[in-house]
Design brief:
Blueprint lengths: L3 H30 L3 H27 L19 H28 L3 H31 L3 H11 L14
Bound molecules: hydroxy diiron-OXO moiety (OFO).
């Protein structure tokens, strides 16, 4: 069972996750446009992961007898300065999402909503991985600098990322 306030907060996060998907789809398109197909693949996988995150909120709200209220998704940015800019903006966005998840956990604890708290723990762990991935790629981009061949090697590495649906994502 969900309180009205918790239902509203979870719907807001469902919207945030859909925005995340939209943002990374935009970044994927930009990467393809500038000739970095590996970067484009990385962001396309990220887009798919965010869609799964959104569906987890969608399913959880319904499982708890709540109402899903889909809201307008904000327009994501389409222009970026460089590959480094893409990942700095990605990290910045993921830090925002981490704060949203932490606020939701605080909310669940304050309401003694143990089910929501347990549900949200998956996202707490996921955010550690998300920020870690971004920090790792930013560190590599710092090493690459202005070196074209090194950038193409990193592009090749990012081309190998494969979408793996998290366990039971379609049901949870
Ligand atoms: Fe990027 O983790 Fe969801 O939003």
């Amino acid at each position: 069972m969900l309180s009205e306030k918790m239902e509203e907060a979870l719907n807001k996060q469902l919207n945030n996750e859909l925005y995340s998907a939209y943002l990374y789809l935009s970044m994927s398109a930009y990467s393809t446009y500038i000739g970095l197909k590996g970067f484009a693949n990385w962001f396309m996988v990220q887009y798919q992961e965010e869609t799964v995150h959104a569906l987890k909120f969608y399913n959880y709200i319904l499982d708890q007898g709540g109402r899903v209220k889909l809201m307008a998704i904000a327009q994501p940015m389409a222009e970026f300065k460089s590959p480094m800019d893409l990942f700095e903006k990605t990290l910045q966005h993921e830090k925002f999402i981490t704060k949203c998840i932490n606020d939701l956990v605080d909310h669940a604890i304050a309401e003694k909503d143990h089910a929501a708290n347990i549900f949200l723990q998956w996202f707490v762990t996921e955010q550690i991985e998300e920020e870690g991935n971004d920090n790792e790629i930013i560190a590599k981009l710092k090493l690459v600098g202005e070196d074209g061949p090194a950038l193409l090697m990193l592009d090749k590495e990012l081309a190998s990322r494969v979408f793996k649906p998290p366990a039971a994502a379609s049901e949870d």
